Amino acid sequence: MRSHEAAAAPPTADRTPGPAARRASSVGLVLAACLATTPTLAVAAEAGSAEAAPPSASASAANRSGAGLDRYYQQRPDWGSCVTGPDDTTGRDLDKAGVQCADVTVPLDYAAPRGRTITVAISRLKATDTRHRIGAILLNTGGPGGPARAYPPTARAAMKEVGARYDIVGFDPRFVGRSTPLDCGWPLGMTWLSAGADRAGFDRQVALQKSLADKCRATGASVLPHISTRNTARDMDVIRGALGERKISYLGYSYGTYLGAVYTQMFPGRHDRMVLDGAIDPGDYRPRLLQGTERANEKALSDWAGWAAERHGAYGLGRTRAEVLASVDRVVEASARGPMTIGSGADAFRIDDSQVPLLLFSGIADDTEPARASFGELLSVLVEAAGGAPTTLPAGFAGELRYALRGEGEPTGAQSAIICGDVAAGRDPDQYWRDIERSRAAHPLFGPLTRNINPCAFWDRPREEPTQVRRDAPALIVAATGDPRTTYKGSVELRRQLPSSRLITLEGANRHGLYGSYANTCVDDQVNRYLATGKLPAKDRTCVKQTD
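Above: the chain's sequence. Below: its structure in token form.
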């Protein structure tokens, strides 16, 4: 349930999450979007800009992307320990793995490069097969706002033999993780809530989401206009230059596929091998990015219910798929009657029909046994709470809920700031309500969640127009047919928009994020072959879900 990503995608925090954290953080993996351009940013226009100019053969010339930016491109990272303090266990683990860390300086506002600067935290696991070194590969684990500074060792393991031929570079996007931070000081970590059962519940959501936008504006007004995907892409190119690379390869999951697509459009000729896992259709990137995922999530929930029915003895949720789904309905109905209590003591949480759909949604983006079992444990607790019984939270849930429902433990607001800084949202609450009611008729559980209002409705308008895909770019796109977050059709559409790309389809999996984390040999081998050779498959390929 972290505001950064990623159920099935790789770990994204500066600490290694356990199964509950990985499952819960799937909520963030699918969210996105907002937009608008001001005349002062004309220098950043895609067509004909200095950004869009292809790199020259000279590394120094390739680093020059516009007046006043040379000093950023020509900096060299001061590599050192990843440990930031006595309690930084992740930093110590990175040091032990041979990872080095540094900060890269970037302008807050690329239209005013001589003005205020911020830092972007990066990490590097250097190539060990230096005779056959391919280059550097940059990582993004999604979000928006997923930190990847801690990810290089995991990526190296996924890449197997070819990993030794790359400098594997993680980075925390601007205002995320170890980079210059943003903290909106919100009383909750996740804003993707359901509208609830009636207009009164929706009106409470309107008031809440407006208060969140106002609070973030009060604490971060000077930086919010500069938090966007396009600026993150610019930061990526500065990282490329600072690393001394003429071109850079890229591995992006979920939202990271959108970021990667934006980079190819803004900086053509500066990317090498691109792997985009769980792709977003750039044309569908918007503040309510979950819109359109309802059927995929219903199918994933139904498939999970069939799995749980076969394990009634373990979870007590029903002996048939229909009985398990009826248990889900009882939980939702009970939460609509009034808040339920789960957990006890300091970790007692009061949850209602705005939060329960989020908890259900968070558990179905991964169809592996451990993830399904973890969700079964949570739903068993919710069923007990719906009946008024005292409950004990399964291990690992309390920390995630403290962040999601109370905003405790980590800064809040970066994900929304990116989304709202990318594409403008509608501002009329009545229009949102009409959309919710229309969707509720067909999708009573997920419609009020995917169509609900969010802080972007009350955000200042973005500084730039969103990026449109107008240039072809070779990339390897990876997708599961049952992905309930970034649905399969998004990957198909991105494949259409990038004719030189290829699509690896995994059939039969309800899974968000595949490469290196789903243990599908067919998918992993295809990706690693591409990373090793730079050659895309001659045609799109299909893999099938492996069964024990």
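Residues 336 and 353 are 5 Å apart (CA to CA).
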